[in-house]
Fold:
Amino acid sequence: DRLCNPRVNVFEEMDRARQSSPESFQSGRAITAILSQLGRRRQMGVAMQVWRWMDNAQGITRNVYHYNALINVCEKIKDWKMALDLMRQMDEERVTKNEITYSSAISACEKGGNWRTALDLLKTMKDKGIMPTAIAYNAAISACDCTT
Structure:
């Protein structure tokens, strides 16, 4: 809640939270939870400040869960381009994508009305040996619905 207050300095708040629970930040669970909560609230600006804070935080390495949480924020705000940018960044940082990564990106494409990219992601996912679940298939099918 505090992070969403426009008067709060996100970097200072994250530093304070890390000091109060260092083991939860070290494991990465706290950041994943924070990004997920920001996604539910559609707070991309704050999520990006948390993301930038991670750049300066000693001992914290971005992992697939962090990326998945941020890609999920992209889905909530219908920003498929940013979802794809994050997937490219995962490649650059050698973070392995999983079914959730692809499903969230496909959902972002669906919400953003980009059915071609949604289908490309589904194909890429299968080509890489990541078996799509019903969530990925449903998002791809929904992306092809001309009425959305």
The radius of gyration is 16 Å.
